[in-house]
Amino acid sequence: MSPPTALVLGATGGIGGAMAAKLAGRGYRVRALHRNASAMAARNPSIDWRQGDAMNRADVVRAADGVSLIVHAVNPPGYRDWARLVLPMIDNTIAAAKVAGARILMPGTVYNFGPETFPVLDEESPQRPVTVKGKIRVGLEERLEAAAAGGVPVIIVRAGDFFGPGAGNNWFAQGLVKPGAPLKAITLPGAPGVGHQWAYLPDVAETMMQLVEHADCLPSFARFHMEGVFDTDGLQLAEAIRRVVGKPTLPIRRFPWLFARLASPFVPLFREIMEMRYLWQQPLRMSNRRLVEVLGAEPHTPLDRAVAETLASLGCLPNRQPADGRLLAAAHG
């Protein structure tokens, strides 16, 4: 019997790269779509790279021929162009899944939820987003739910802010620490005492993989929350960083929200960051009860190890390499 084939959209990104490595390790043939497939094949020949663009439906349908799973992990870089790109890309993935008879697996976010649902979120919490990106995420999930009702099985795994090797643009790498050198300070986006939800990328990929392996027991539209790493007071991740680097008095600074607000009319990235500030102003925790009912336990890497692997991948621990070099290489594409 030939091994199953999975198409990963966004294989050069954080969760896409981690899922590509995870699928290959579980015996899948991994296929990926890229606008420069020949260059990617030279860099990572273990993946079957197909020429194309996730914005082009014919390309996605062609790449999905014969696959049993499509990992939809493609997102516009940074916070840009969501309104123009996100929904057309999911429509193309749904169309391809219908033709191929494939399941869709997608990472979700907390953007769907407004602050009135905090501090504890479960899968059925009301979705009343207060941002443009949140409304787009709600629309995206509504399209997937409709697709599931029409015969396309779907698994969504919502998690907190990603960190870890290859995680790409994220608050840990762009907010808490400065990559590329030993740390001189830690910057905290949230106020002390405000809990925040994080997710270690390898744990997210393992959770998604285990859910695929339990797919026969799931409803056609299956949605799960990960507990991940809940920073109870907004300082736990910072203290783990201090322990890992061996500097118990490493300075902790507040994120310059005032500067971001003043710069936001002129710098699109700051404008988008300001829109998401509400996620740092109130405690936010995700309940994984449904996930544990299916898997028995949520995959979890000890915090200090997760932080050490992340810092090593960012060049903040010059004398230490990440334990899983294969994962890091795959995550970078």
UniProtKB/TrEMBL annotation:
The organism sits in which domain of life?
Bacteria
Q: What region holds the NAD-dependent epimerase/dehydratase domain?
A: 6-216
| One of the record's GO molecular function terms | aldehyde dehydrogenase (NAD+) activity
Q: GO cellular component terms?
A: cytoplasm
Q: Do you know which SUPFAM superfamilies this protein is assigned to?
A: NAD(P)-binding Rossmann-fold domains (SSF51735)
Q: Which InterPro entries match?
A: Epimerase_deHydtase (IPR001509), NAD(P)-bd_dom_sf (IPR036291), NAD(P)-dependent_oxidoreduct (IPR051783)
Supply the Gene3D superfamilies for this chain. Answer: NAD(P)-binding Rossmann-like Domain
Q: What is this protein called?
A: NAD-dependent epimerase/dehydratase family protein
This protein's species is: Ciceribacter ferrooxidans
Lineage runs:
Bacteria, Pseudomonadati, Pseudomonadota, Alphaproteobacteria, Hyphomicrobiales
